Structures are given as C-alpha cells and as structure tokens.
Amino acid sequence: MYVGCHLSSVKGFENMGSEALKIGADTFQFFTRNPRGGKAKEINASDVERFLALAEGNGFGKLVAHAPYTLNPCSETDRVRAFAYECMSDDMRRMEYIPGNYYNFHPGSHVGQGVKKGIELISDLLNRIITPQQSTVILLETMAGKGSEIGGRFEELRKIIDRVEIKDKIGVCLDTCHVNDAGYDIVKNLDGVLKEFDDVIGIDRLHVLHINDSLNTLGAHKDRHAKIGEGQIGLEAILRVVYHPQLQGLPCILETPNDLEGYEKEIALLRQSQYSKK
Ligand code: FE
Ligand code: FE
Ligand code: ZN
Predict the structure, then answer these.
(1) Which ligand has the minimum distance to the alpha carbon of residue 175?
(2) Distance, CA 178 to ligand 3 centroid (Å)?
(3) How many domains does the chain have?
(4) What beta strand segments (E) does the chain contain?
(5) Cβ neighbours around 230 below 10 Å, total
(6) Å from CA of 181 to ligand 2 middle
(7) Is the dihedral of CA 219, 222, 226, 228 positive or negative?
(8) I want to staple 12 with a disulfide (CB 3.0 to 4.6 A). Which of 47, 105, 255, 276 is the partner?
(9) Centroid of ligand 2 to alpha carbon of 223 (angstroms)
C-alpha cells in the first residue's frame, strides 16, 4: 500500500519529497499551480532530478498532480473553457518532467447547460489534450454531485471515457468523501459499490484513492472533508477501503484538514491496521 497526503508544491519537488519521507509517506499529491488558477512557476530541472533520485531510493509509488479547482472544461463561458485548455495542456507538458504519473481533475460543473452537454465539452477537451506520446494518465475524480457538478454518478464518468479517443491515458480517482456524499454507501456496502464501479466503469480504470472522512451524511451532495475517524464514514470503513483486496497497490492520498503532523498520525493510523500487508 502506498500512502501519502496532499502537500504544498510552493517549495518545489525535492521539498515535497523530504516532507513525505518525514511523515512516513511514499506517495503524495500536489497542485500543479495555485489551486485558484493563474500562471504556474516554471519547473526547475535540477530540483526535479534530486527529487526523482530521492523517490527512487525510497521506493515511492506513483504521484498525483491535481489541477486547479477553477478549471472547468464544461463552463458556459468561452474564456473559462479556454483557460481549462491552456492550463491542462501546459500541465501536460510540465508533467513530463516527472514521467509516468497521474494528473487528476474535477470534471466540472455544467452550470445549467445539462449533463449531456457537460459530458460532451469535457470529452472534447480531453480529446484536444491527450496525445499518444504522453506518459501521464489523466484521472477524472468522482464528485459529490454538488450543484451542477458532473461526476457524482459513475455513469457520467463512463460516458466521458466512452467519448475519449485515446483510452489508455484516461482513468478515475475515487474520493471516499465524495462518493459518500454522492450517495454510494461505502460504509455498509463497500463490495456493492465496488461491484457497481466495476460494472459501470471497470475497476481497471481506477488508479488512485482519495482517502477522506466526510462531515456529511450519505447522499448529502455537500463535499466537506473530515479527519479520518471524525466524520460520518469512520475509521473502520476507511480501513476496509484501503485494505480491500481489489484496491491493493493504488496510491492512497489523504486530503483531510490537517497540518503535516496531523497527516503523519493519519498515515500511521492507516498503516497500523491488523490487516496490514504491503
Ligand atoms: Fe479533488
Ligand atoms: Fe479529492
Ligand atoms: Zn472534496
């Protein structure tokens, strides 16, 4: 099992690598740029080189880059969709400094245009972005279904993937808080939810887990993360997710409201389990 958390990318890759080591992580997630959008800092090749050596020497799993929240491929505004394209294509170029990792994004909000139109706009963007040469796999995140968000239902993600032409560069990241809030009962019926995921999307498309407790109840369509064991999902159910036989080997990324010390404790909590096996 690879476990880590969301880290600040402000001080670069080597810094994230040593922070990860310090807290017992062997993977992590980072924003490719300011989460509210804006221009990204150019990547420092020697910083990346030092990081890659550190990651290899310490047996790190795959990393997860997260697109900014303001990226909305299915906005009704041309300018917002143009930003989504520019941001994502620049991020794809920058991701090749750390080849073979994941790039996760929120599919977006259709803001009244309807789910069908939203799905078309999202898959159109992906078809303009994805090239056969890229080493990065792009992940659609499962969403809570808040407002006009796309991705609260597995069927919506499946429809996006169906329209993507280069299928080996597209996958899914499952967020435990989001699926709970979307109405998938991972507490009482994890096997059933995974079966549904497999039937609708295909479990082999699942590449990353976001491990979060939720402040809200099943089906609340809210999306407020809680610390592990302090929300409606609870520690036991979270452990059943991270140790589920069908989910072994996937990077588990904590996005709980914590500082580094809090993350260190939660990583230890996930690793301490009696089910523990690497
Ligand atoms: Fe996210
Ligand atoms: Fe998430
Ligand atoms: Zn969330």
Answers:
(1) 2
(2) 6
(3) 1
(4) 2-6, 27-31, 64-66, 102-105, 137-141, 170-175, 206-211, 213-214, 225-226, 251-254
(5) 14
(6) 12
(7) positive
(8) 47
(9) 9
pLDDT tens digits, one per residue of 78-90: 999 999 999 999 9
Query: How many C-beta atoms surround the C-beta of residue 61 within 10 A?
Result: 20
Ligand index nearest the alpha carbon of residue 104: 1
- Only one residue has tokens 């099992």, namely 1
Expressed in angstroms and rounded, the spacing between residue 224 Cα and the centre of ligand 3 is 6
- The two beta strands, 213-214 and 102-105, are unpaired
Q: What is the CATH number of the domain that holds 94?
A: 3.20.20.150
What pTM, to 2 d.p., does this model score? 0.97
Considering every ligand atom shown, identify the ligand nearest to the alpha carbon of residue 254 and give its number.
Answer: 2
Task: Report d(CA 99, CA 95) in Å as an integer.
Answer: 6
User: Tens of pLDDT along 133-173?
Assistant: 999 999 999 999 999 999 999 999 999 999 999 999 999 99
Longest dimension (CA), the chain: 52
Q: Which domain holds residue 130?
A: 2-277
Q: At 191, which amino acid appears?
A: D
